Amino acid sequence: MSGVRHASSPVLVGRSAELGALASAIARPPSIVMLEGEAGVGKTRLVTELLGLPETARRLVFAGYCQPLGEPFPYGVVLEALRHAGRHLKNKPPLSPLSGALRPYLPELADFLPEQPAPLGDPRAERHQLFRAFRELVSSLGALVLVIEDLHWADDGSRRLLRFLMADPPRNLSLLLTYRREEVPGGIPVGSSYRPATGSASVLIELRPLDAEGVKHLATALLGERAVSTEFAARLHERTAGIPFVVEETLNALDHTETLHAGLLESVEVPVLLREAMVERLIKLPLTARRLTEAAAVLGVPATDTVLADTAGLDAGRARRALVAALEKHVLFEAGDCRYGFRHTLAQQAVYGTISGPTRQQLHRRAVQALLKLSPPPLVQLAGHSRKAGESADAIRYAEAAAQRAAEVGDLATATDLLRGLLDEPALEPSDVDRLAGRLSAIAFDGLSIREVIATLQRLLGDRRLSRRLRGEVRLSLGLLLMRYSGGVESGRAETELAVNDLGHRPDLEARGIAMLALPWAGTTPLSAHLPWMQRVDELIAGATDRLVLLTLMASNVPSWLHIGDGRAWALARRVPGTIESAGEQRQLARMHCNLADACAWIGHHDRAGSLLHSGMQLATSCGAPYVVSTARATRAHVDWLTGHWDGLTARTLRLLDEYQDLLPVASELSLVLGSLAVARGEWDRAAGHFAETGIAQPQNAIAPVVLAAHAGVVRMLLAQQDAEAAALEADRGLEAARAKGVWAWAGELVVMAVDAYCQTGRESDAQALTDELERGLAGCDAPASYAALAEAQGILALCRGESAVKQLTDARQRYERLPAPYLAALAGERLARCGEPEASELTLLASAFDELGATRDAARCRHAVRATGAITPSRRGRRGYGDELSPRERDVARLLAEGNTNREIAEVLFLSRRTVEQHVASVLRKLKVHSRDELQRA
Q: What is the C-alpha to C-alpha distance for residues 471 and 475, in angstroms, rounded to an integer?
């Protein structure tokens, strides 16, 4: 019986564009290439093809392979990739003394490395020294391609080292990283976002499954001369979802003595086919090879022949013959460095499912004994095998040790997952539950696994084995996490208050709970209720003797005072200790910088916000504080919106929202930014959708300044749609929330929009009362943004009364410019230009300013006003000069078309006649080579 002619396709199918992009990037070092794709989609095959190209073959190539059960050993996969670099260093100049830091990690290169430097006594400094040494080693090797496969399984240390390289890559280096996005912790491949270094190429390539035609080409290549019909290919595509690996496995499982037809696929279940396919292959293996394959499935990661033999219970000779048979039948594959496993995790799972329960248990026991011989022992694997072998006590011991090791090296995600898994064990003793619950509570607040940890903590509070002493600690962690979770602010405050009453034995945790209750931005709790808590935290700060407790309290309370416009916060901030003595202290300092940046963004110190974000992000990323990083990234998007850095902001913010959608403080602020951008572009439906995600309908479970700004955005949108009555009603709702909270430092933009709406609906007295109320509320406040808004509101009120508003609006524009807030300054400038008879030249300049920002709707309104004056504004570029490219106006029309707007709606947004819009639509469709609006929307 003939089988598939090729174990994998002899030609690369459907990947020419991706291969070209890879080759182009690799050929232009320094370059960073991210290759993203789901399991089995062909990332490794594409990399193999790339490395076989003549232009790549001339360069030195090293590769590292991450494993799904990687031990918390920092930098492992990256350093391992270069451990055979010795022969390439023989004729190179000697490395500097700095490179001696690599000796403990790369003993294979001992002949080429100087002596190890003396310990620095500071883990952060030693880590930085190690990173610099690795960069020097890479730089010394000449033209180099470094491939790291399956980055989603990498340890946090390796991600940090990669981020260090990516921030300033050696000029000789091309770095290629492959990963599955769906399995990346937190959705961030290298643990944090990065900006490409100046002068380096950065490329992201997403590898997608093949379409039906691609599957046909792949099947034809695999089956050689056997004809593949369109019907067969279509059915194969349907069964395999176009994933190349599953296509190959499906074809390998077919009976190739039969004529190829679509019905032949019915005998193989696809895409669940993998199990059946592996069963077919296992049956054809000799008994010893099958035993070795089952051992490989139980081990779960590529292993040496010795470990495989010990697990399978085979002597060395029989194990070697069994391994050769499994390799020849393409059941097992060499994963590199004399380690053997399955080509794909799905294949391993398929084989594992065929093993009977008693046999699996026996194999897991043998796996434990085999792995205990390794040094250092792989604790994560030992814990998993012990649990599946029924050895609960050993599983707990190994998993707890692995969690401790992971926490020590900053791998909080692994530590959290391990502890959660342990706490799910029903056989735990009460003392074990207390100990593990305490450890989970201690680290949960710094991670991103909020939803899962909340569920575990809630279950623990209902567990009778948890002692009363630990109940307060668990409840505090639950409360703090709920306040970060969508819909959880109110219940989070309630849990935190309960926890504070149970934490008399832990004054440090009690103080942390009090500090969280003091946060003024949480929900609808009035400022008057927060102030006693804030003052109590100040008292705790004054009496704090523990540096970590001091920094923890200051990181919460100093930004809280600044949030409400209390300028004394700046003096408090200067009391921060000048030196940092631990990673915990660094995390709190990072939190303080980023929280201060957030407060600065809301009250109008935008330049300060930017500098604090820069320092805070550096501190957070270097000490492993993923939650702080997430809040800083959201604040960065907010500051970019405020300061007019809108280029690419929508796409970047959408990516962040996708990553952090469960984190309330982050997701709501990102939704506000997206809604505000949409209003400026006249994208009404999109704006309304984003504003709805800010928590505006449930302010008690939302972030107060975000809610007030969202109300302002909705009022602005309704006024732009000429629905002043609805705008006034929305302003009423927003002001009800503002008055209930009592922090006028956040209310400036809402007051401006409310005054505008009231003036347009005949509520002049309400507008006057509101303006006076804002002025009283801001008395003595450090809130530059709201003072600018006050001046603008006074100007709008003067215009409503038919009085001169030049002084007030000039003051407002200048104040906005100093923040800086260029969009708000341009809007104030437009109001100023419309005082009396507007000058065409001034309106033209404003239109250009809005265009540069990307405020399409506002620019169109100004151009319409210019046309109304009768002035003729010469185009900067002749209409014919665009050729087949879209003109700026056509790009606006294309964007609105793609969102499903009608010609009438487009005309309204862009202040154009419907006839003009019809002409633009026809031109857009022609230039984009699409035949209909529906086709454009699908593109």
A: 6
Residue type, 413: A
Please, what is the angle between helix 748-760 and helix 704-720, to 10°?
30
Cα 511 off chain centre by: 31
| Rounded Cα–Cα distance for residues 91 and 83 (Å) | 17
CB-CB contact of 715 with 731 (8 Å): yes
What is the value of pTM for the model shown?
0.66
CA angle 509, 513, 518 (to 5 degrees): 145
Q: Enumerate the β-bridge partners of residue 701.
A: none
Cα–Cα distance between 411 and 137 in angstroms, integer? Answer: 26
Token pair belonging to 186: 């937190």
User: Which contiguous run of DSSP H or E holds residue 595?
Assistant: helix 583-603
Q: Give the residue from 120, 634, 284 showing the smallest Cα distance to 293.
A: 284
CB 440 within 8 A of CB 416: yes
Cβ neighbors of 126 (< 8 A, separation 6 or more) are 101, 119, 120
pLDDT tens across 282-304, in order?
A: 888 999 999 999 999 999 989 99
User: Could you tell me if 47 and 176 are in contact, meaning their C-beta atoms sit under 8 angstroms apart?
Assistant: yes
CA-nearest of 812, 755, 746, 756 to 778 is 746
DSSP for 184-243, please give it: SGGG-TTSS---PPTT-EEEEEEE----HHHHHHHHHHHHTTS---HHHHHHHHHHHTT-
- Structure tokens that stand for 888 in this block: 């700026």
**Residue among 93, 65, 90, 68 at smallest CA distance from 79:** 65
Instruction: Locate 917 and state its tokens.
Output: 């819009």
Question: At which residue do the structure tokens 């939650």 appear?
Answer: 627
Tokens of 231: 């019907």
List the one residue out of 242, 57, 33, 247 whose CA is nearest residue 151.
Answer: 33
User: Could you give the CA distance from residue 818 to residue 795 in angstroms, rounded to a whole number?
Assistant: 18
Q: Which of 602, 862, 598 is nearest to 749 (CA)?
A: 602
Q: Quote the pLDDT of residue 194.
A: 67
* DSSP codes of every residue in 345-392: HHHHHHHHTTS-HHHHHHHHHHHHHHHTTSSS--HHHHHHHHHHTT-H
Provide the edge-to-edge strand list for the sheet that holds 173-179: 60-65, 144-149, 173-179, 31-37, 201-207
Q: Residue 3: its pLDDT value, please?
A: 32
Which amino acid does the sequence have at 595?
A: N
The answer to whether 674 touches 690, Cβ cutoff 8 Å, is yes
- Beta pairing partners, 177: 34, 148
